[in-house]
Guanine nucleotide exchange factor
Amino acid sequence: MSQPKASNQLALVFKLLPRADVARAAEIEASAYPESEAASLETLNYRHQAVPELFLGCYLQEAAQEQEKLVAFIVSTLVNGDHLTHSSMFSHEPQGSAVCIHSVCVDPAYHRRGIASRMLQSYTKHVQDLKARGHHLDTLPTLAAEMAEKEKKKENNNNNSQPSSSAHGNSFGQLDRVLLITHKELIGLYAGAGYQLIGPSKVEHGPDLWYEMVHIL
């Protein structure tokens, strides 16, 4: 039996996740996290509506299929402060100084292939680009620009256009850090992607202890 391909052998594309794929993201979330920790479809829809610039999808391009398959994603909101709190998990502050990562999810069928590490590296670069530009999606010069324009045209043609990113009022020039909480067994994953351990988190979400980590921008 052949071994599953590692992430560097897979044709992966990292780009902003369109609204039409949020339901698929919710399926991945439900399969990757315990029920007590998984975000609902409603919550993911809220996060996408609030700050689509921080909802990044990882898509697999398969030679036998023309369409790309969503296999992983990262979603965040903006918050203020140097540390995450319980309210950080359920809020979004458009002028926040920190990116709060809520989910780093990989379809279980693609676990242990290094996808999460590659996705985190792409996501950090994406956030750094957002900070450098300082504004909203309309000004994104990097991985999301072409895809965003295609999605905008598609949705306009369907008379079901999403509000422009400027309507969200999000800004990114003030960002100074990316924060997340994780369980002990995944600290190494995030450390390998450039995150530093702060220590046990005060956030209570599910039965297990969380640890807070930070990446300074």
The radius of gyration is 17 Å.
